[in-house]
Amino acid sequence: AALVLSHRLTRSILRPLRALERGTMAVKAGEYDHQVPEEGYHELSRVGSAFNAMVSQVNARGAEVQSRERRLAALLENASDGIVVIARDSTLVFATPAFAKAFHPGRGRTTDMGDLVHPDDRERAGRAWARVLAGDLGAGEEVEARMRHRDGSWHHVWARFTNRLDDPDVEGMVLNISDVTERHEFEERLSYQALHDPLTGLANRELFRQRVQRAAVAHAASDAPISVLYLDVDEFKHI
Predict the structure, then answer these.
(1) pTM, whole model, 2 decimals?
(2) Residue 92 phi/psi, 5° resolution?
(3) Would you give the distance in Å from CA 34 to the centre of its chain?
(4) Where are the beta strands (DSSP E) in the chain?
């Protein structure tokens, strides 16, 4: 009777332990939905129940992480603004489809961001880059510059540099880029209309005043005279 009881006791202990072992190996292999039978003595049953609860929680967390990753991927895929990650040597290592569609030179080509910036704007953009590069993690700065579009034209963009070089998940400089060409052209049209006659396109009195004032300031410290020639055309309105 003792041998029979001992045999049954051993089986009742080993069976749930083996089930837990198989369950542990299954989870290790990535099968996060694996469950073990909650059997055996009270303590072993509680261990099996705790294992199943842990696996359910891991499975739920994994599904939540995957859902967030899919959501983030969809947001990046459909973002209208460009988001890029640039390595310390200025090489582009990641770009959203919006940026790649507008500014990336094409497949199979390594992009140096400096080559995309207009020559007249490189020094100013480079100074902003250097300041952010020398800053701490999270340091940022904004700059406007012209970048070469894939069609060869120059587009005005607003860019924000954010230093994430020491972030192990990024390891680069993050650029948020917005194409502001339409806004810039609209501002230029407004400025032109404010300083030119709408009928003839000639400079108006406000532009004349600004240029005279600028000339006066430029020659204030010198003895050079400022001359103004005034021509009166009779019946100019009829002309």
Answers:
(1) 0.57
(2) -75, 125
(3) 39
(4) 82-86, 92-95, 140-148, 154-164, 172-179
